[in-house]
Please model this.
Amino acid sequence: MLSRLVLRAAPAALRNLPPPVTVGVLHTTRPLHTTQQCLAPLPPLPEKGGEVRYGLIPAEFFQFLYPKTGVTGPYMLGTGLLLYLLSKEIYVINHETVAAACILSVIIYGIKKYGSDVAAFADKLNEEKIAKALAVKNEAIKDLETAIEQEKKEQWRVEGRSYLFDAKRNNIAMVLETNYRERLLTVYNEVKKRLDYQVALQNLKRQKEQDHMIQWVEKNVIQSITPQQQKESVAKCILDLKALSKSAQAAV
Amino acid sequence: LCAAVLLKDMKLMDVKLGQLPTWLAMRDFTPGGILGAVRRGYDRYYNKYINVRKGGLGGVSMVLAGYVVVSYIWSYSHLKHDRRRKYH
Model:
C-alpha cells in the first residue's frame, strides 16, 4: 500500500520535498510526519478490492475504452478478438477445449451456488482475527491508562513531601533547642557552684578572723588583769552585793 | 509552478508514444532494478486485489487466467498439429 502511495505521490513529492536531513541527526525543531509519504497512524485496509468484471477483466479496462468507444467498446473488442483467434486457429479447438468447457461450467456453477456462503465464512474468520487484535490493542490501552493514573497518583503523593520535610525540620529544631537549653542549665549550675564556693570561702575566712580576734582580745584582757586589780574588783563586788542585799531587804 | 518531471521518472501511462523507446532505454535493467520492478508490481497487485477486507474472486482468478494463457502460449508449438486446416 505504501509502495502504491509512493508511486502515486512521487512527482508531487519531488516538488514538495523539504531539504534532506541526515538520518542520524534529529533536530527537535523539524516537524515530524508532515510530508505526504509518512502516514501515521497507518490507514485502515480498504473495504473492497479493485472491481473485476466477469471474474477476469479489471473494470479499469472498460473505463479506459469508454471515452473513445462507449459502453459496447470492450465487448466488440472481445468478440472480434475471439473470432480472429478462432478463424486463424491461433486458438485450436481440440479435446482440451471440451475438457476446459466442462471444467469451467462446473466451477462457475459451484461459485454461483456456494460463493456467498464461503464468502460469509471467510468474513467470519476475518472478523474473529480482527476482533482478537482489537481486544489485544484495547487491553494494552487500558493497562497503559491505569498505569498513567497510578503514575499521576504517585505524583500527587510526591507533593506531600513538603509536609513531611516540614515535620522533620520541626523535630530537629526542637531537639536542637532542648540540647541548647540543657547545656545552658549545666553552665548555669557550674557557674553557681563556683560562685558559691567563693562566697563560702570568704565567709569562712571572715569568721575565722573574727573568732581569732575575739580570742586574742579575751586573752589579752585576762592577762592584763593583775592580781591587785582582781582583789580590788572582788572587794568592790562584795560591797555592791551587800548594798544590793540591803536595798532588797528594805524593799521587802 | 509545475516543475518539469524527468522522463525517466514519468509513469508509463504519462509517456507519449513517440517517447516510448527513449523511456524504455532509460529504465533500470540491472538485476536489482528488475527485482525492484517485480516487487513493485507484486505489491501493487497484492495491495489492490488481495490485501483488502472483503476480497473477491477476481484477485485469484486473474492470476490463474494469466497462468492459463501463458501455458497455452508455451505449448502452442505442440497444439499446432491439432489444427483442422493447414492454411488460413
Notes: The two ends of chain A are 158 Å apart (CA to CA). Chain A is about 75% helix and 0% strand. The beta strands of chain A are 52-53, 57-58.
